[in-house]
Amino acid sequence: MKNNVAVLFCLLAISVLAQKKPVDYVNPFIGTSNFGTTNPGPIAVRGMANVAPFNVAGPQNLPYEKDSRWWSTPYTSDNGFLTGFSHVNLSGVGCPELGVILAMPTTGEIITDHIDYGSTYSDEVSKVGYYSNTLDKYGIKVETTATTRVGVSNYSFPAGEANILLNLGLGLTNEQGAQVKVVSPTEIEGIRTVGSFCYYKPEEAYPVYFVARFSKAADDFGVWKKPTTYRGEEAQWMTYNGKTRLMKGYAKEVVGDSIGAYMTYDFKVPTQVEMKVGVSYVSIENARKNLEMETADRSFHQILSETKEEWNQYLSRIEVEGGSEDEKTIFYTALYHTLIHPNTLNDVNGEYPKMRTRETLKTDGTRYTVFSLWDTYRNLHQLMSLVYPKQQSNMVNSMLRIYDESGWLPKWELNATETTTMVGDPAGIIIADTYLRGIQDFDVEKAYRAMKKSADQLKQNPLRPGIEDYIEKGYLTTKTTNSGSVSTTQEYNISDFAIAQLAKVLGKKEDHKRFSKRAISYRKLFDKEFNLLRPKNDDGSWLTPYNPETGANFVKNLGFIEGNAWQYTFMVAHDVEGLIKLMGGPRPFSKRLQDVFDNDQFDMANEPDIGYPYLFNYVKGEEWRTVEKVSELLKTYFKNAPDGLPGNDDTGTMSAWAVFSMMGVYPVSPAEPIYALTIPTFDKITIHLDAEYHKNDKIEIIGNGKQGNENKAEILLDGKKLKKPFVTHQQLIKSKQLEFRYN
User: Fold this and answer.
1) What is the per-residue pLDDT across 308-349, written as a single tens digit (0 to 9) for each?
2) Closest CA to 204 of 97, 305, 287, 53
3) Of 18-27, 251-260, 610-619, 703-712, minimum mean pLDDT range
4) Mapping DSSP to helix (H, G, I), strand (E, B) and coil, where does residue 714 land?
5) DSSP 740
6) Best exposed site among 146, 151, 303, 734 by fewest CB in 10 Å?
7) Distance separating alpha carbons of residues 78 and 53, to the nearest angstrom
């Protein structure tokens, strides 16, 4: 009998495991520590609304408190004191922004200071589309989910006095100013100003609009406002100076910096209240339309079910077999992170704000936003082109809309503002790469004109500062810029390479020749004394004295942005053969590349470095180093834990590295549709292709369980052995199977 029970238990366990879907493997807590800056709050695929637990305010959370350091996330798993749930947030960014429209359920009397009403929390759960915890101070269970433009919360109150606060003064953003109005006992509407991402362009601060609707009518309501504290002569006459004003029953607009609204209830028995918060970057009316169109009469659990199913459809585009449970969790969580940003900007009616002026425009497709392109041009968009080509097409068309509206392609666009964060001219790299991968349902001639404009306009060029020196000398100098002369030159080189590749397929021979020459001008900055890149002065002399290690750990230096010579020299994947020659041949190149790792100069959290492990594939006989190094990096930096990212996810860039690397293919050279190959993590990976863009319905990558010597794998494409560990994008999507066999 015992044996039968044991067998039955095993069969049931196997059955449960077999029924697990990709969505069940996602752990949203991954990246919520170690400055990964993700958050565990629910969001729809590329959603505008994201209900994030906000636990970075208050001295209780030191040293991880938003005002105590450069802090760019509403949540960290290191903290345990919560002051609400914000409804518009960013994931995996390096600068503080958004994190506003904070809702907080409480009990007892109305308290408006977040330090006083904040609470520790327990019973924390996060899954795709769902987050919950219990507020210890009040015994309130909070559950949250989201549609594309609506955050939905379910509060389980104990019997007695209960409140729902909407705090418009608290937030992650550096901007102030809000407006709020209680429309009825079941609805609050308002506006919150945000902007100044990375402390740039405060003149382009902008509004986010919201409408909050409650499932139960409040017994009472009101607003509060905490005015500025006066210090002058009049202060002695103002008995109310600096004190919070609680305005019970007030039903008109209130405007200010530290303001909010509340609903109060008196429950005779434990009661649940659902709150739906629709958001918009166009108007309050559109926020209300978003709320009504996306949630209507659907309950919390219906919305949760629909959001989860949508996520599962997207995550199921890639199916993996074999590997451990942790490896599957790491993989699908990484894929999940790549589907958050870029996210939706337009409302359900297609309306969205125009760049800078905020005039209302309309789109038929999806107008995407949050283009952190210095990061994502290296791998995320290549992943979208392979697995989600329709989304990638909409992203390119969004970039072209930005060009139409502003006159320039985006650099780091956020909610219809150009933050100009970071360096380089990255949008054209993505556009060329997308076109070369066969996604061509956009105006390529317009795109080409836009790319050439930023490459050739000498005056008032926001995408390529210092372009006059770049064109005249081939590089930026220590006089051109006070930081990043070498690395910015490299970024311009990669953009010019992209233009050259697009010019070639468009039949623009002279442009192809001209930009191909410009794309390798970094060679003028190669110093054989160090076998590394080195800044030059305006007169052509080398910067002296020079320490190639200076610049690591965000130390500012003249030559490199967020890095040093070691962390940038090999960021020329478009000209590896040229760099090999500069270094004296394949062996010296491989040795110098290995020195980066051996001398502890490699930074897995730094975008310029992330392609380095794959460069060993360019040297015959050294391919095993790629296999070893990628495997080591995956095990070291990507874990099923809150600190399971190497650092800032950079809107999915680090996660995209993990997705590609675990599949055994990596887009090593942006704007060149080629994959460097390594050993896949799983026995079998099936990528389901989009019939609108691909002839094949799927690609299978066979890892064969890593049996034998991984360093001597044979790689076969549809049964034919590859001579080199590379495959082009077109070869891959036109094939049925990529197989790794081990000797």
Assistant:
1) 999 999 999 999 999 999 999 999 999 999 999 999 999 999
2) 97
3) 703-712
4) strand
5) E
6) 734
7) 13
CA dihedral 466, 471, 476, 478 (to 10 degrees): -80
Number of residues assigned to the chain? 743
pLDDT value at position 706?
58
Read off the pLDDT of each residue in 544-560 and give the average, rounded to a whole number: 86
482: its two tokens: 């006070």
Tally Cβ neighbours within 10 Å of residue 444.
Answer: 18
Q: How confident is the model at residue 1 (pLDDT cuts 50, 70, 90)?
A: low
CB atoms within 10 A of CB 691: 9
pLDDT tens, position by position, 91-132: 999 999 999 999 999 999 999 999 999 999 999 999 999 999
Distance, CA of 433 to chain centre: 19
> CA 166 to CA 362: how far, in whole Å?
30
φ, ψ dihedrals at 130, nearest 5°: -150, 135
Identify the CA nearest to 427 among candidates 389, 385, 375, 490: 375
What token pair was written down for 596? 């980066």
pTM over cut 0.85:
yes
Angle, CA of 139, 244 and 251, to the nearest 5°: 85
pLDDT at 708: 45
Tokens of 425: 């001219």
Among 702, 679, 685, 683, which Cα is nearest to 631's? 679
C-alpha span between 136 and 121 (Å, rounded): 5
Burial 323-352 (b: 16+ CB within 10 A, else e): beeebbbbbbbbbbbbbbbbbbbbbbeebb
Joined together, the tokens standing for residue 211 give 């409408």
Beta bridge partners of 676: 666, 726
Distances (CA, A) of 19 to 15, 216, 386: 6, 38, 27
Cα–Cα nearest to 327, from 30, 737, 649, 716: 30
Within 8 A by CB and 6+ apart from 678, the residues are 613, 614, 617, 626, 627, 630, 631, 661, 664, 665, 666, 725
Kindly provide the residue ranges of all beta strands, DSSP E only, lying in 54-93, ordered along the sequence.
81-82, 85-86
Under 8 Å between Cβ of 219 and 266: yes
Q: What is the pLDDT of residue 297?
A: 87
Cα angle 711, 715, 720 (rounded to 5 degrees) comes to 155
Inter-residue contact 241 to 119 (CB < 8 Å): no
CA distance linking residue 142 with residue 42, whole number of Å:
13
Q: Is the pLDDT of residue 505 over 90?
A: yes
**Which pLDDT score, from 0 to 100, does residue 234 have?**
80
- For residue 437, which phi and psi values (nearest 5 degrees)? -90, 5
Distance in angstroms (rounded) separating the CA atoms of residues 103 and 85: 5
Q: Are 662 and 653 in contact (CB under 8 A)?
A: no
Consecutive H or E run containing 133:
strand 130-135
Task: Identify whether the C-beta of residue 300 lies closer than 8 Å to the C-beta of residue 191.
Answer: no
Which phi-psi region, left, alpha or beta, contains residue 93 (left: φ > 0; alpha: ψ -120 to 50)? beta
User: Which of 654, 581, 569 shows the shortest CA–CA distance to 618?
Assistant: 581
Strands 674-677 and 245-248: unpaired
DSSP output for 605-671: TSGGGTTGGGGGGGSTT-HHHHHHHHHHHHHHH--SSTT-SSS--TTTHHHHHHHHHHHTEE--STT
